[in-house]
Specification:
Blueprint (H helix, E strand, L loop, with lengths): L1 E6 L9 H14 L3 E10 L1 H12 L7 E5 L6 E9 H11 L3 H16 L7 H18 L1
Parallel strand pairs: 1-2, 2-4
Antiparallel strand pairs: 3-4
Cofactor: Zn(2+)
EC number: 3.1.-.-
Function: Single strand-specific metallo-endoribonuclease involved in late-stage 70S ribosome quality control and in maturation of the 3' terminus of the 16S rRNA.
Length: about 140
């Protein structure tokens, strides 16, 4: 199992990467999802907008795009792209520390790969509850 963090054209300022990797591995275990590999890419709005257009045909800014790359749905091989620009803007909007919002988005992507959705109101409420649960456990 390998978890990687990469920055593309920006500085991520992510602290305690070793601790976060172990926590993410535990999150997958707790959710009953296998984990083979997970790659987080921290990037700009512009870069993530291009990914959103190219792969999802969405012409909108977003804070995260998550891809399952593996063929076995029970074992994650994922890539998660996070716009640090959106995270900073959302932290200001929701009046929370940037570090907290960054970790919320990191956990959000992992939860998507564990099978959680957020398109309906009920699914979004469950997703938010799980994010809060993991934020409390982490911090």
């Amino acid at each position: 199992m390998a978890i990687q963090f990469t920055s593309h054209e920006i500085k991520d300022n992510l602290k305690e990467k070793r601790k976060l990797k172990a926590f993410l591995a535990d999150l997958f275990k707790a959710e009953g999802q296998g984990l083979k590999s997970l790659h987080y890419v921290f990037c700009s709005d512009t870069y993530l907008l291009e990914i959103n257009k190219q792969f999802l045909q969405h012409d909108t800014y977003t804070d995260i795009v998550t891809f399952e790359m593996g063929e076995d749905s029970s074992i994650t091989e994922g890539e998660i792209y996070i716009s640090v620009d959106r995270v900073v803007d959302n932290a200001e909007k929701f009046k929370v520390p940037v570090n907290q919002e960054l970790h919320r988005v990191i956990f959000h992507g992992a939860l998507h790969l564990c099978g959680f959705k957020d398109k309906s109101k009920a699914d979004a409420a469950l997703m938010r509850s799980k994010e809060d649960e993991y934020l409390q456990k982490y911090f």
